[in-house]
Here is the input.
Amino acid sequence: MDIPDSKEELGPWLDRKIVDCQLGQFVKELEFIADDFNPPGYSPDSLQEILGSDRDAVLDRGLKSLNYDQCAAFLANPQMLLELQELVLIEGGNYWQNILDQVELPLSSPPRQNKTKSDSSSAPKVHVLKPIEESPKRSKMPWIISVAALGLLAIVAYQYQVHVANPANNIVENPNDQKSDTNPDKNSPAPTMLASNWGWDSPDAFNDSLPPDDYLHELADAAGAWFNKRPDSTDDLKQRLAEFRHGCETLLTAKHTTLSEDDREWLRTNCKKWAGEIDQMLTDVESKDISEVQKQADQTVNQLIREIRLKADEVA
Here is the structure.
């Protein structure tokens, strides 16, 4: 691990790590060498103790606002980087948004250590999700990233008309999927969901060849894709929430064969809770300020990521 040894380099380097969706894996790696970075005579017990009176400066300008011992304290206490990530994603200023925009986010998590469930030489078995079937009213037009601004605007406008303006198309479900019981009351409105290819709807989100702890860390990484796109309108936020909500449904109906029965039950029970919170946000977004709902969504996603990682550490 190539860690800068000067304050001028360490602060900006940590800033980029903090907005990276692979921060959880970085923290896990740091824990093996954390003792090497403990500044003499400086042993903070909390994020607030590290930041102190520099909290607002960090939110505005990043960790370059801190001295070297403060920055090194994050290396010695890597779990506090996760707390700082949550703080800057919710309260950080334009500085953090600019870094987030510059980070080249991976399409999938990098391979972890060569840990496998068995020594079998056969190719790992990968659980592949069945594609979501579209309703007859939905367009079959594929998503195309156009280099022409006019073409891009046309696609966005068309998708808005199909997915947002027409409420009949808000519910996208695979009729072949096993239904979860997140909406047991048949008389209540069905949850608003949109199929996507990110997060828990990503085709490679569920790799049952991994050991249980790595499997759970992969799920946490996939949930972190929520932060890859920041909606700037009510309709965009509603669509993003609906896509995340569909991912919850996908997680609920996945087999999770690498997990024990108790761990599968834990995951599904908590996912129902998270899905319920997203459902409430989809209701709130119609009447509340977008920034308030966005903040609530960020907190929920950060919390569920933390809970999954804690569970991963527990089963390791």
In short: Residues 108 and 204 are 8 Å apart (CA to CA). Residues 105-111, 116-179 have pLDDT under 50 and may be disordered. Residues 149-315 form one domain. The chain has two domains: 7-102, 149-315.
